[in-house]
Specification:
By secondary structure, the protein is α/β, with parallel strands linked by helices. It folds into 2 domains: 119 residues; 34 residues, no CATH class. The protein contains 8 helices and 7 strands. The strands form 2 sheets. A 4-stranded parallel β-sheet has the order 2-1-3-4, sandwiched between helices. Strands 5-6-7 form a 3-stranded antiparallel β-sheet. Strand 3, helix 3 and strand 4 form a beta-alpha-beta unit. Helix 4 crosses helix 7. The longest helix has 22 residues. The structure holds zinc ion. Zinc ion binds next to loops. The site of zinc ion has 8 residues, from loops.
Length: 184
């Protein structure tokens, strides 16, 4: 099955970064206009992710696929996207993209990054990844634990959503959706 590709509205930059870490081709710009998002989504068959209800309505009316996110919590947001379009909720580093620019990453050894990371990091870690587009270097630093925590929570929420069987027809047209006010 072809992997979904996304375009994310201007209010959801952190969602864009997460989708890239999870390995999904995701476009995001701080100054996108609604019409740009709609036309790119239409042309490139991308799923719109938005917390702007009027943009969501416009997208649905034009026949674009759109996910309306009302949640503030990142785990809930990711679980909801997973529920609607089936993204994986674990990191596959072979697929991860640069959270900053959406470029592909390639794995590299210590030597190549010696002058580009702090000494302490160079000593502590042996696996590094470099963005093929912007050159930024990544490693599985202390933030990694937090990423795993959020994904674990998201996976649990996804199971809840499946149990509750929210109607996706309603979701995609802006109808029924769970919110943080719903008690599980
Ligand atoms: Zn990059």
């Amino acid at each position: 099955m072809e992997e979904p590709r996304f375009i994310v509205d201007t209010m959801l930059g952190n969602v864009a970064r997460w989708l890239r870490i999870l390995g999904y081709d995701t476009l995001y710009k701080k100054d996108y206009k609604d019409w740009e998002i709609l036309s790119i989504a239409e042309e490139e068959k991308r799923v719109i992710v938005t917390r702007d209800h009027s943009l969501h309505r416009k997208a649905i009316n034009r026949g674009c696929k759109s996910i309306y996110l009302s949640h503030d919590d990142m785990a809930e947001r990711l679980a909801w996207i997973a529920y609607v379009v089936g993204i994986r909720l674990y990191v596959d580093l072979e697929k991860s993209r640069c959270p900053i620019c959406n470029g592909d990453l390639r794995k590299t050894g210590k030597n190549e990054v010696k002058d580009r990371v702090p000494d302490r990091v160079y000593q502590l870690y042996s696996d590094f990844w470099v963005c093929k587009r912007c050159g930024k270097v990544y490693w599985l630093g202390s933030h990694w634990v937090k990423i795993e925590d959020i994904l674990e929570k998201a996976r649990a929420m996804l199971e809840e959503y499946k149990t509750r069987k929210y109607a996706l027809g309603g979701v995609m047209s802006g109808g029924t959706r769970p919110s943080s006010r719903d008690k599980f």
